[in-house]
Amino acid sequence: MRGARGGVSSDAMRIARIARVGATNRVVRARAGRSLFDRLLDAVTPKDVPSDARADETYETWRAMCSKETLACVEALRGTTLAGRALEVTFDAAASGYAARAFHEACDGAGPCFVVGKTRRGARFGGFNPVGFYSVEDYRETSDAFLCAWEDDAAYRRGEPPSRVSNVLAGGKAAIFDFGAQGPCFGVDALRVPLGCAPPNGSSYAGVGGTFDLGVENAAGSRVVKSRLGTYYEGFDDGEGLFTKKEGAEAELVELLVLSAPSLRRSADDGLYVS
User: Fold this and answer.
1) Looking at the domain assignment, is residue 198 inside a domain?
2) What is the pLDDT of residues 63-87, one digit of tens each?
């Protein structure tokens, strides 16, 4: 709307000012309704990079940090306290021996860790312990522990994610059994890797769930591994366990590794991890 001299009329100018003020007020109200964290995040986030793209970039960077042999573990550990961190093999039974003492000497104080094993018939399984091992001679509670299994060893070698996941049941009671007399144990029976007889360290749970004295062979440690899901950890939807059908609830280990992040290592004097 123009006046007699071809300029903008005062009415049009007032309408434009009202529109500008209204738009400004809407922006202020929108910002006020968002948390301080969201506003700070907006300030440091490039506007031309979607959040899912940044997550993908971080994930790819993490994969590049890890060895080809651990890529399947990277897939299993997405969303855990180990995600995005450089991982190392803290314990390798092939090198250190299938013995509880060797396991705890390497893993106690290493912080959150991932146990991965392979059985004689090719089953590939894993277990995430978010509180770590310290030989506290007791069980540990956590709601973040889980067990998992891959379709087969070939899928693991290809770096695929696990095909089945078993979360600790509600409350996380007795999620991790942390006794110096045994290897890694999840729940009473969800995953038990006894690693031979108890060393003479006075563990009150040296024979929990039965004896593992396997005779002369036991001097080098035990390769027995047992699993029964459904009591402390969820059962799989298909009713299968961590091992092959032929193995059932008990198998023989041919590989046992523990992965952890050096950046999370801490001693018992620093305080135990909780989750």
Assistant:
1) yes
2) 777 777 889 999 999 999 999 999 9
